[in-house]
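User: Let's play a game. I give you a shape written as tokens, and you guess the letters that built it. Ready? Here's round one.
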């Protein structure tokens, strides 16, 4: 399996347990971009029972 087809199969596996095949015309018309996360920040939400104590 080529890299683009493998990437598409990984993406589709997130939405269905069905195995997909991709027509070559569709493969050539599709761009797959790999995004590498270097850092991530976020905000933590307290559970509901703890939020009431902090009001």
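Assistant: Ready! My guess for every position:
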């Amino acid at each position: 399996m080529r890299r683009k087809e493998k990437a598409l199969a990984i993406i589709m596996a997130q939405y269905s347990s069905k195995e997909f095949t991709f027509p070559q015309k569709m493969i050539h018309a599709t761009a797959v971009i790999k995004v590498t996360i270097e850092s991530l920040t976020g905000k933590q939400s307290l559970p509901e029972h703890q939020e009431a104590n902090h009001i």
